[in-house]
Every structure is written in structure tokens, then in C-alpha cells.
Amino acid sequence: MPVPLLDLKAQHQTIRDEMVKAVMDVVDSQLFILGEPVKQLESEVAGLSNTKFAIGCANGTDAILLAMRALDIGRGDEVVTTPFTFFATAGTIHNVGATPVFVDIEPKTFNIDPQAIAGGITKKTKAVIPVDLFGAMAPIEEVKKVAGSLPVIEDAAQSIGARRKIDGKWVMAGEAATIGTFSFFPSKNLGGYGDGGMIVTQDPAIAERLMRLRVHGGAKQYFHDEVGYNSRLDALQAAVLKAKLPHLAAWSAKRREHARFYDDAFRGLDGVVTPHVDPKNESIYNQYTIRAERRDQLQAFLKEKGIGSSIYYPLPLHLQPCFAYLGYRKGQCPVAEQAAMEVLSLPVFPELTQAQLDEVASAVRAFYGR
Fold first, then answer.
1. Of the residues 222, 246, 270, which one is the last residue of a structural domain?
2. Do 66 and 132 fall within a single domain?
3. Do residues 44 and 242 make contact, with C-beta atoms less than 8 angstroms apart?
4. Is residue 233 within 8 Å of residue 58, measured between CB atoms?
5. Do residues 152 and 128 make contact, with C-beta atoms less than 8 angstroms apart?
6. What are phi and psi of 171, to 5 degrees?
7. What is the tens place of the pLDDT at every residue in 97-121?
8. What single-letter DSSP state applies at residue 261?
9. Residue 196 domain-assigned (yes or no)
10. What is the C-alpha to C-alpha distance for residues 331 and 102, in angstroms, rounded to an integer?
């Protein structure tokens, strides 16, 4: 039985009528840019993330870029971040004119190591960007402690709805940072029918500036306080996301259920290390990512059996050719480099059947002789 890494068609079949109505309501209104659907979604995402403000934008990459612009980060500045993440995290640092400073990750969670951040901070540092990788929050309270007075931009592209218990209280992804950023790329737990992003904050001044920056830097049409961007969340995408949002908690719970199945299936299996979730965290499992011996051979074996998988990420950012000018060398972020050689993400989407889960687990076990 073929098992794809992700099956969005299976999800669509369960909510098709809701989606058609949401889209057609916008089409019938002929109001496609910002507007009421975007305002409603912003309000609901702010509520979900326990923040005072949410500002929609064109995509998750722009969310990070706009966040840095709102903090006046630019040429000559440095931003500390992780090398083990999607390219946008560091690409946006470069694109505002700043320099990414890469520090290593924790070996178990793959998230940025707070202790390593201290070694990356200099007089030029203007912010720290931790990433909530694979759906589990980075230790935001520890990151903030090390960052001190520096602003923290939480790249929560993969973790909307995730939470972490801090001092006995649940804190949502995006809630505790200076600015939090989300992506609504179709493969995310809350995915649109195209690109979309959202920025959250507790700071009214930051929120006001972000609302200007996303529309060419002007709060009033044809009057521009600064040079901004064309980075608006489409009304169509907002309507789709708003219709999907009530399902998010159940979808993420189903992913956790599938993750528990895999954890049990692979327990004691030599050659496989199952994902470690910090006991303080509740992950939304945007990915179920194992460490695997003979990773590439395992992936080829699964492909032969029609089972989807993917490597997030095969080359850490500090070793990417486009960042060669920074002068990083192999061995400077050894934990990230080791992870890049071992990680493999398996199907974990909510609509997986028990037969499909059994197929994946049996194939992995068979490869390792169990």
C-alpha cells in the first residue's frame, strides 16, 4: 500500500464543503486584498497564540523579514540563529542587510542550544531567532534569559498551536517572544491553498509598524512614512485558513497519536532514535523525524515500498554555498552537522489509516532486521 509523506487530498475530502463555501464567499464579494476575512483570522490567531496583536502577511518568509525591519535590523548588524532550519530563517537576515551568526543545536530536540547563543553574541548583535523545529517549541524562556535585553524573534513557522509549560503555566508558540512568526504554507498543520504568513506580538508600537510595513510603509493610502513591502495576506487565503482553524487542534492531536504509535513500534529498535520532545513541550508534530543509521539506504528502501519520507535538512545553513562568504567551516556546528547526516521524517499527517501506519512501521523494522 503506497503511503505518501503528506496527503492533502485526504484532508480536503473531509472539509471540502466548508472550503468551497469559504472561497466562494470571497469570490462573490470580489474583495480580495486584506479586508474582513484577514481581520477575522488575525483576531483568531491572536487568541490562539495568547498575543495582543496578529498581522497577516504574504508568507512565512516575509513574516521574519518584516519582524526584523520592525526592529530596525539592517546593514552592519548581526542576528544569532540556528543552522538547522529551513533556509528562510537565515535568508531573511541576509536580505535585510544583516549577518547571520550560526550557533549549534541541542542533540535531542534539534532546537537551538541556549548555551551556544551566548558565544554568538557580540556588540553587533541586534536579535536572536530561535526556531520551533518540527512542531516543538524551542526553550524560549532560556533563550530570552541568555539574550538579555536583545529582542527575540520566534520562528514558529512549523509550530502554530504548540505550547510549552513555563513556571507551571502553558505558554503558546509566539506568546513569549518579542515577535513570533507563522507560515501557512500548504504542508503546515494549518496550511492555506498557497502562501500566507502571520506575525504576532504583545507590543502595540511594533504591531502598528508591521501593519504599515506590509503595505508599502503607509498607514494611509498613497501616504508613506517609510519604504515598506507589498506583503499582504490575500482574503482568499485568510478565508481558507479561518475555515480550517477550528480543525487544527484535532489534527495536531491526531499527529501526536500517530507519533506515539511510531514511538512504541520503534522502541528498542537498534539503528533508530525516535524524536525527543522536551517534557515541558506539547508538540504539534509538523514532522515526525527520527535519527537513522544508514539513513540514505533506509530512505531508498522505503521508496521501493512506496513509502514517502524526506530529509529536513541535508546541509546545515552555515555550510550552504551562498553563505561561504561568512567563513564557516565543517566542524563548527558539529551537532547540526551530525543531525543532517542522520535525520529522516516519516509520514505523520492526521488522515493516515492504521493500515498505513502499520506499513511504515513494518518497513522500518524490516530494514533493521526486526
1. 246
2. yes
3. yes
4. yes
5. yes
6. -115, 130
7. 999 999 999 999 999 999 999 999 9
8. H
9. yes
10. 12
pLDDT in tens, 145-181: 999 999 999 999 999 999 999 999 999 999 999 999 9
Which cell numbers hold the place of 23? 472561497
Are 240 and 326 found together in one domain? Answer: no
**154 and 15 in a common domain:** yes
The answer, yes or no, to whether residue 370 has pLDDT greater than 90, is no
pLDDT tens, position by position, 53-70 = 999 999 999 999 999 999
Confirm if 363 and 307 have CB atoms less than 8 A apart. Answer: yes
DSSP for residue 150: S
**Domain-embedded: residue 17:** yes
Domain extent at residue 134: 8-246
Helix axes 354-367, 295-304, angle to 10 degrees: 130
Domains: count for the chain: 2
Q: What is the CATH number of the domain that holds 20?
A: 3.40.640.10
- Domain boundary (246, 261, 282) is at 246
CATH classification at residue 279: 3.90.1150.10
Annotate 131-170 with b (16+ C-beta within 10 A) or e (fewer). Answer: bbbbbbbbbbebbbebbeebbbbbbbbbbbbbbbebeeee
